[in-house]
Design goal:
mainly alpha; 2 domains; two-stranded antiparallel ribbon; two-stranded parallel sheet; 6 strands
């Protein structure tokens, strides 16, 4: 019984046959309306609950790792302050972040009474045809971008930096590491968060807001700049476009992993201002910043936006149907 019920009485409380005037009916409390909508907990509160869960899990797990494992703490410091990544760090850190994001989403799925697959990363599509299509598109995107910069005089391939077993080792480790990066970042921004915000404010307003946040977060990377953050924003919009057209985030996971892999390992240039150990080439970016991207890397180059425009048009032509709408998803 609510407080309003206890404080008010009417003839119908004692005689159900007596009609209750409209003006005397007690509606839901304002607090209830604030937290609950027609479909349960409102989208903003669900996203806040997920964020708190994810943050608490990070504090417990990642914080414990920093305190208890000196080598992990050193790798984290090197990445955050020095701007240098290693494949071992990517596998450990991004893998842990992915596991924690999935755990937080799994808890929310029980609260929301919906399957975890509803958040855009169904297990049935894991590393299937759509994922590998995305990987091919990601490799093609980064190759076209680097070739354009090279032909305009802003990139030199240089010599091989690795050979033999070291080449095989780093090729495999970086591949695994960037799959974790793609899965974690895409599930966090285009998975749970996109699904939840879209249910409250619509698909594209949510996509714009989250892509803006995605770009802004990259500004914390050493060597990153506003042009690179804008390029990351454009990638976020493209990622949401592929989600809407394919019905899941598996395509963009493949695209994200492969484009980062090509940028960091194959072409051996800065990725969002971050450098890497164990890369393939002794390559070099040079020339004007608008062309090479400078310390940001290719994401800071004008060529990034040109290639994105081409990729948007090509993807629209090859995937003209919104799979999310035809599958009946609320997104």
């Amino acid at each position: 019984m609510t407080c309003g019920d206890a404080m008010s009485t009417s003839p119908s409380d004692f005689n159900p046959s007596v009609p209750v005037p409209e003006s005397s009916k007690v509606g839901p409390s304002r607090i209830r309306k604030l937290f609950l909508g027609p479909n349960g907990i409102r989208a903003g509160w669900r996203l806040a609950m997920f964020s708190l869960l994810f943050g608490a899990l990070n504090f417990l797990v990642i914080g414990s790792g920093v305190r208890l494992i000196p080598s992990f703490a050193a790798m984290l410091t090197q990445a955050r302050s020095g701007g240098v990544l290693s494949p071992q760090f990517e596998i450990i850190f991004e893998g842990a972040q992915l596991a924690l994001a999935l755990l937080a989403a799994g808890i929310m799925s029980q609260i929301e009474k919906r399957p975890l697959a509803a958040y855009g990363m169904p297990l049935a599509g894991a590393f299937g045809r759509v994922f590998w299509q995305g990987a091919l598109w990601g490799l093609a995107f980064e190759t076209a971008e680097m070739l354009a910069i090279y032909l305009l005089g802003g990139f030199t391939f240089g010599t091989l930096a690795l050979s033999g077993t070291a080449l095989v080792k780093f090729a495999l480790l970086w591949g695994i590491g960037f799959v974790f990066v793609g899965m974690y970042e895409e599930f966090l921004f285009r998975g749970y968060a996109q699904f939840t915000l879209a249910s409250g404010m619509g698909f594209w307003p949510a996509a714009l807001l989250l892509s803006g946040l995605f770009g802004a977060i990259h500004l914390s990377n050493p060597g990153e700049g506003w042009v690179g953050a804008l390029s990351v924003f454009a990638f976020g919009i493209f990622a949401c476009f592929t989600l809407r057209r394919t019905g899941s985030i598996w395509f963009v996971i493949g695209f994200h992993a492969a484009s980062d892999y090509a940028e960091t390992f194959i072409y051996s240039v800065p990725d969002s201002g971050m450098l890497a150990t164990g890369h393939l080439l002794n390559s070099n970016l040079h020339g004007p910043r608008w062309l090479s991207g400078g310390s940001i890397g290719p994401e800071g180059s004008l060529m990034s936006f040109v290639i994105f425009a081409i990729v948007f048009a090509a993807f629209h032509k090859m995937h003209p149907v919104n799979r999310i709408e035809t599958s009946g998803s609320p997104l």
